[in-house]
Amino acid sequence: MSCIRFNTPAQRSQMRAMAPSMTTSQEAAELHPAPKVTDSKIARLRLLANDANPKIRESAASSHHTPVKVFEALAKDSDEGVRACVARNEHAPCDVLRMLANDPSETVRGFLAVNFFVPDAAMRTLADDDSATVQRLVRWKRELATA
C-alpha cells in the first residue's frame, strides 16, 4: 500500500479555499495583548535576578521589563550566560550595553556585537576587539544594516 495521496483538482481547490488566513504579527499582538506590567511583576524580576541558579537569573536578564538597576547588577554577574542574556537584550540600557563591550567573555561580546541597539561607541570598541570572531560579527551586522 502506498502512502502517496493523489488529490483531484477539485479537492485541491477546496483545500485552498478552506485554508486559514495568516495574521500578521501586529494583528496577533492586538488579538492577544500582553498583560500590564505591575509592581508585582517588577518585584518578581528583582527576585529572579538574585536567585542562586544562573538559569533563573538569565530569565530576568532576558526580560523587556527589567529595571535599570537590575540590568546593571546582572551585567556584572559572575556567570557568562547571564551577562550574555543582558548583551542580547534589546531593552537593556545603552550604558549597560556600553559597559559589556569590555567584558572578558568573547561569547558576551559576540552577542553584544549582533544586538542592533548597541551604541556606536561600543560598536567601535567591538570592531577593534582582540577576538577575530567578534570582529567578524561586527562586520556581518554592518553588512546586514547596509544591505
TrEMBL record:
Q: What is this protein called?
A: Leucine rich repeat (LRR) protein
- Natural source organism: Rhodoglobus vestalii
